[in-house]
Amino acid sequence: MAKKEDLAIHKLLKNVFGFDQFKGNQEEIIKNVLGGNNTFVLMPTGGGKSLCYQLPALMSEGTAIVVSPLIALMKNQVDMIRNFGTDLGIAHVMNSSLSKAELLEVKEDLKSGKTKLLYVAPESLTKEETVEFLRTLKISFVAIDEAHCISEWGHDFRPEYRRLRPIINAIGDNLPVIALTATATVKVQNDIMKNLEIMDARVFKSSFDRPNLYYEVRPKTKDVIKDIIKYIKQNPGKSGIVYCLSRKKVEELAETLAVNGIRALPYHAGLDSQTRKENQDKFLMEEADVIVATIAFGMGIDKPDVRFVIHHDIPKSLEGYYQETGRAGRDGGEGNCIAFYDYEDIHKLEKFNKGKNVAEQEIARELLNETVTYAESAVCRHRLLLHYFGEEYNKESCGSCDNCRSPKEKFDGKDDLKLVLEAVEDTKQLFKTKHIAELLAGKLTGDIKAAKQENNEFFGAGDEHDEKYWTAVIRQALVNKLLSKDIENYGILKITKEGKNFIKKPYTIMLVKDHDYESSDEDDPETLAAMGSSKDGGADKTLFGLLKDLRKSIAKEQGLPPFVIFQDPSLEDMAIQYPITKEEMTQIAGVGAGKAEKFGEPFIKLIKEYVEENEITRPNDMVVKSVVNNSALKIGIIQNIDKKISLDDIAYGKGLEFDELLSEIESIVSSGTHLDINYYIEDNVDIYHQEDILDYFHEAETDDVQTALRELGEDEYDEEEVRLMRIKFLSDVGN
Fold it and tell me: Which phi and psi angles does 204 have, rounded to 5°?
């Protein structure tokens, strides 16, 4: 490019955008676009992607079309461009929100050549009249923002993005394309380039490392709401986002935060556009400190001083997680990213995938596995995230994640890594992580039987450890580049050149054990500190033991399993809160008025005596005020069940997923209310299964669903019917 044009770029950068110099590889990208070449830009959130098409659009003859998925994002960008100059016609939006008069004005500005940037939603581009009109204009290039939406392997797949290439061809011949995304794995990158037919594009990839972000994963307990409130109150006046997976949870949590004195607002696609816009603006203008949102919030939101991003639920993919946490600390300042993790949430997400076709299920499962990997791993989280995006991280410790600040003990993994690689090699490199882990652990699954590997020399070769351990070893083999995943085949393990060399000549590689979020690790000082030096979440261990003994003797006397009286979490809460009246007992987790009345008396008596004898000052702990709505929901559910309305219809009528409805019913029953769901069970659960499951719970030590499934046989029984029968059992026997 001529020196004159070079100077023009820098002059425009200063005069229009107000910057003295370009960031990273922005200048190179801009020159490539101005050269009329196809361009692919991989740049993390906050890296300055927008400038890469805005500046060349202002310098090019004609209008640049910017395809963007969100109206809010378009509006933001148009306002920003207009603020740079005097002519409002320089940038426009064309989407369904425009009136006829506004659309006419936009078209006049486009015809006159005033407009340099036209922001269009992909849905609008599919309209024939829009394409016909755009054909009459001089188009400089097409920019596709949030290009990961093209790929089924991306975290925000949108089918309409798949249709962009034929539309671009219809608008003009040989139009240059610039595709931009803040997150893309190698698989997603290939998908985007293939679909847009820009395999010749020059790829610009910025580092995905955000050193100012602190990553942490915390166990998600029954007190997760209290934990979130506590964190926000410890950071007064700071802006933050709390992500939830369901709209219902967004609204509940936003209300709960608000009644607890936090300036919080909800944001999800189910709210009307006016409310969404208002809540977004209040957040940007600092009239609200916290936005509680689904993934619908955040794309392109330019708020540089978001100081924390909390995930109430673990996201469906690591790409999604990276994108969402990327909203924090965009100004280079503090950015704390805290995710609450419970493996039960993964089960729920897997269940949502059941209705999809096989290929989609495979993709979703693989993406979820990567998320579990991230959550449970004790490896540096910066390193894991960068590995996922195909980037190496060479620092020994980032100093900016929970795993590096509280490192776990390392051990020489040479022998275990070699065993993994040999197992992958012996089974012809045809299987995924889960299969190899189960093979080594000696777990006789349906997949192992189908592959006829129960007599394979590697079946049970590592049975001193469980499959979770072997999953962690495989994961670290991937991070150390001994194994790779075949991206075309849903994550099948392949041995790399380094892996083959390692088999021949093993060398010491230090590994760390994964976190176990299912059972607290007593030896983990971090866990102990977080839990008040107690395995039972800060509970008084002595009292907890006494309460368990009392429960056992009452259960024996009444011929009931102990969990029917009170479940463990309820006893733990009693050992934290020390309730000494019936009213206080009803505030305990899982204890309603019915339970308190039926079983509460001897427990209250024991706690009262214990408090007096040991001169205990009862905690004046932060009491989280709850929202009334929840009780209204529960009353509605009880009334509908009394009318024998199908549970599917109740779920639909209340705007709940079936899984969420069962959780509400479980909460009602465990608190002591009797519910008769026999009418639904008779039609939906096999009669023999009913008997078997009831017999199991009569004898069981615990009412844990996953334990029940393992005992009963996961191939024959499913989670839904076990949960339904557990509700029936607890209601009939305990209430």
Answer: -110, 120
